[in-house]
């Protein structure tokens, strides 16, 4: 039985390879050929050795529900494309204005702002096209996955959370407001990834409910751990400027609760995530380890 | 039998109403509620009395293939959402830097740049979610429509064309290069709209081929007429600054051919579009009128 770390690495390598094929530089001319500069920017923002956690969660959940991992690869790629587009747009000067991402120049630094906006738009579009064409063998399931992905990524999910986060730079949020913003900004796509895995695996209503509860707790753990890393880790470890959230006046639960209380709260959330998986027995151990991993990762 | 103008107005009113329902301001709180400012920006960029030509083409094509207009409304809304998002992003300072759109402030002027980027992202996401959920009664057809919409909107279509247009500001394109850029930037979404109507209407391979030929000619006519308007119309008539393409050094066939030759070329393209519809007989008269309308519109 492969270790958790080995499973994570296998998934990351498979997603990276699939993204490489999908975003292979095409012929430089011909009608309808994606422009070389646009493809290069899409690749820069995507093929970066990421941990591919959202596809991992999607595929592990699908596997738990009985779907072989090779059948969930395309859906995993689609959710990762959405994640990568969101990072490109979040890094833009008008948004978080970040120069570095995983230790490399952000897309608008390596190219320019217009190219970064368009590369993000193209990746988001590609995510839905890929999901609609390859996300599942059954076309009805593909349509359902598209709807779930859009719900997680859109105005009531990730993009809405990013808007709330920006508004939070000038408006003080209470703990509920911070939790809601984070549940949308980070949580919604993680939740959608896990639910897409469950849908792909044919989960019934009860199983989908348990997995959604797991997903929501796992998403909270992921974000809280991220906020803790922002104040405790070195820039080298996380590959971007740390302490930046505080400098931007961004509101986090860590800033509100203090580091020690935030760490205790993180332990409680991980416990919630693990408990939500009880009905699945030991088969769900990889997802349990994923929740623990979120809370203890160092980058 | 309603006149062409009346049909255009009826469709525009139906699309406007459907968009109004879809983008209705929701409750201002609650987990997963889209932030009010984001919804306001999405509405500003969408509910603007547009002519809704792409939904019109989609729905007329579906009707020609035997699908009642009420069954193509949602797919029409989805393609219009993509068009509206593209205008918001194209107007951004890093892109075309436009202050006015249809006589009103552009979204980044009425709100701010970050909000405009996110509103565009949210509308694009909503387009795919809406298509995946409501685009057709048959879920397999919905998945196919999602794929067609993504192909028209993505790196090999509209976004790729926008990239080529920006590159053209600094690199001289030949006539073929301009035609290719425009076929992607403007043509690809018009082509996708007409093909989605055909797919929704269950068109066979031959009919889809004829309608695609019509779509490609109609798209060229639309763009050439737009370029002619940019150099000949008053700002009041088109609701935005005219002569702007020339000022930006944008390359158009009008700039290359001269106004008179461009007008003659436009006549030829409209003829091509009309001829492509021959197999459909008089049933296709509304689509023929649409091609003529593109070439003669004054705004």
TrEMBL record, chains A, B:
> Which BP terms in the Gene Ontology apply to this protein?
terpenoid biosynthetic process
Cite the entry's keywords alphabetically.
Isoprene biosynthesis, Magnesium, Metal-binding, Transferase
Question: Any one cellular component term from GO for this entry?
Answer: cytoplasm
User: PROSITE patterns from the xrefs?
Assistant: POLYPRENYL_SYNTHASE_1 (PS00723)
InterPro entries with a match to the protein in the record: Isoprenoid_synthase_dom_sf (IPR008949), Polyprenyl_synt (IPR000092), Polyprenyl_synt_CS (IPR033749), Prenyl_diphosphate_synthase (IPR053378)
Name the cofactor(s): Mg(2+)
Does the keyword Cytoplasm belong to this entry? no
What the entry lists under SUPFAM superfamilies is as follows: Terpenoid synthases (SSF48576)
> According to its UniProt record, what is one Pfam family this protein matches?
polyprenyl_synt
A GO molecular function for this record?
prenyltransferase activity
**NCBIfam families, A to Z:** FPPsyn
What the record says about family reads: Belongs to the FPP/GGPP synthase family.
**Protein name as annotated:** Probable farnesyl diphosphate synthase
Q: Which organism is it from?
A: Devosia nanyangense
Organismal lineage:
Bacteria, Pseudomonadati, Pseudomonadota, Alphaproteobacteria, Hyphomicrobiales
């Amino acid at each position: 039985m492969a270790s958790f770390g080995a499973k994570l690495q296998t998934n990351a390598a498979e997603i990276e390879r699939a993204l490489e094929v999908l975003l292979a530089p095409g012929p430089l001319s011909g009608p309808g050929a994606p422009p070389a500069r646009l493809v290069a920017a899409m690749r820069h923002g995507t093929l970066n050795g990421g941990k591919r956690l959202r596809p991992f969660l999607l595929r592990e959940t699908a596997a738990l529900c009985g779907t072989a991992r090779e059948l969930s690869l395309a859906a995993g790629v689609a959710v990762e494309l959405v994640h990568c587009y969101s990072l490109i747009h979040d890094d833009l000067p008008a948004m978080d204005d970040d120069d570095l991402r995983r230790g490399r120049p952000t897309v608008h630094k390596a190219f320019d702002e217009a190219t970064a906006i368009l590369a993000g738009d193209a990746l988001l579009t590609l995510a839905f096209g890929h999901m609609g064409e390859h996300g599942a063998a059954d076309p009805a399931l593909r349509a359902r996955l598209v709807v779930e992905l859009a719900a997680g990524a859109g105005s009531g999910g990730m993009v809405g959370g990013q808007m709330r986060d920006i508004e939070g730079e000038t408006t003080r949020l209470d703990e509920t407001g911070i939790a809601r913003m984070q549940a949308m900004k980070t949580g919604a796509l993680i939740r959608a990834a896990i639910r897409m895995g469950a849908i792909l695996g044919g989960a019934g209503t009860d199983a989908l409910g348990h997995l959604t509860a797991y997903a929501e707790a796992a998403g909270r753990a992921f974000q809280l751990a991220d906020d803790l890393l922002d104040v405790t880790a070195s820039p080298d470890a996380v590959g971007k400027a740390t302490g930046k959230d505080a400098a931007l006046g961004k509101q986090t639960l860590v800033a509100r609760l203090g580091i020690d209380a935030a760490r205790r709260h993180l332990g409680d959330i991980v416990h919630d995530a693990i408990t939500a998986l009880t009905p699945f027995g030991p088969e769900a151990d990889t997802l349990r380890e994923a929740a623990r991993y979120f809370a203890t990762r160092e980058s």
